[in-house]
Amino acid sequence: MDIVDMAKRIVAGERRALARAITLVESSRADHRAQSRTLLETLRNHAPERQALHIGLSGTPGVGKSSFIESFGLMLTGQALKVAVLAVDPSSARSGGSILGDKTRMEHLSRDRNAFIRPSPSQTELGGVARRTREAVALCEAAGFDVILIETVGVGQSETTVAQMSDLFILLMAPAGGDELQGVKRGIMEIADMILVNKADGALKDVATRTCADYAGALRLMRKRVYDPENFPKACTVSAWEGHGLEAAWDDMKALADWRKTEGHWATRRAEQARYWFEEEVRQSLLAQLQTNNAVASRMNTLGQAVSDGQTDASAAAAEILQMLKIQP
Ligand code: GDP
To answer: Which of 27, 35, 242, 247 holds its CA 20 to 30 A away from the CA of 96?
Structure first.
């Protein structure tokens, strides 16, 4: 595979080259990993000035993520913007089955030539999915997409992972009673830039409006973040079905992104994210050694048994493994 040629085609916006490149970065084969690294480095030199807006979007199954992305994405492509949709699916990381990968989702958007939709890579652990998605984001950015939507289901660590590759993080919610509002994890509220209460239509409209007011109140109680202008983070109602609120939400996202760019927070966040992913990749690779290095894995097993039998001290056993990995215990 000619990596320089592939890079040129990606920069020229050839979708097939982009799709093949994403397949390449999703592969865990050592030669493919090496090619991926070369490709990403080459693209940094080819298209360093290209910058897309990375929007992370999270919500529990059923809140209307695919419906929202379909309507929102079509609104953006209607404004001649190029939109890529990627996913981090923790369920596919665990079981190989996917919540987000269903082919029938976003039927119209997937046929739009200004849109590019890629389901989550199926991998054995979230760390692997995260790295591959992050690299796919970089590829889409080099390919000249204006907006990259990174979708995830609100389970466990996946929101934090997506927030770490997003410029803006959006929480999609369903209309609900006050009790359910209490159930939203504080940590998730803290990373949200906007809360969009979907399904604000028909019989659900009033509940959605009340839910939105509740979230707005909850957001006001949170500690002020330096990277927010007045009135952010904010809560709004939308209807993916009727299209209500989508333009307003997009205007808010642009306003927030512009303000952060002007104030320098955008660049700071990207810089911090780059550092985070560097450190995370070192951590993940070290962890992977415990499983992929056969000698280490087998010794871990033996020592695990010895420790549980009371024959060896836990710290001494750990020191032996670390020495095998040439790490100072
Ligand atoms: P996801 O699991 O988060 O991707 O949610 P889906 O997009 O599959 O939507 C879940 C259900 O909510 C489906 O039955 C949708 O038709 C419905 N839904 C999605 N958006 C809206 C909306 O704006 N209004 C209403 N009333 N229902 C919606």
So the answer is: 35
Please tell me the distance between residue 64's alpha carbon and the centre of ligand 1 in angstroms.
4
Give residue 243 CA to ligand 1 midpoint distance, Å. Answer: 12
107: helix, coil or strand?
helix
- Residue 207 CA from chain centroid, whole number: 29
139/288 same-domain check:
no
Atom in ligand 1 nearest the alpha carbon of residue 242: 23
Pocket of ligand 1 (CB under 6 A): 59, 61-67, 198-199, 201-202, 204, 239-241
Residues 65 and 12 in one domain: no
Instruction: List average pLDDT for each run of 10 residues in the chain, which is 329 residues long.
Output: 93 95 90 94 84 94 92 97 90 66 76 90 71 93 96 81 94 81 76 96 95 92 91 96 97 97 96 94 86 91 96 95 86
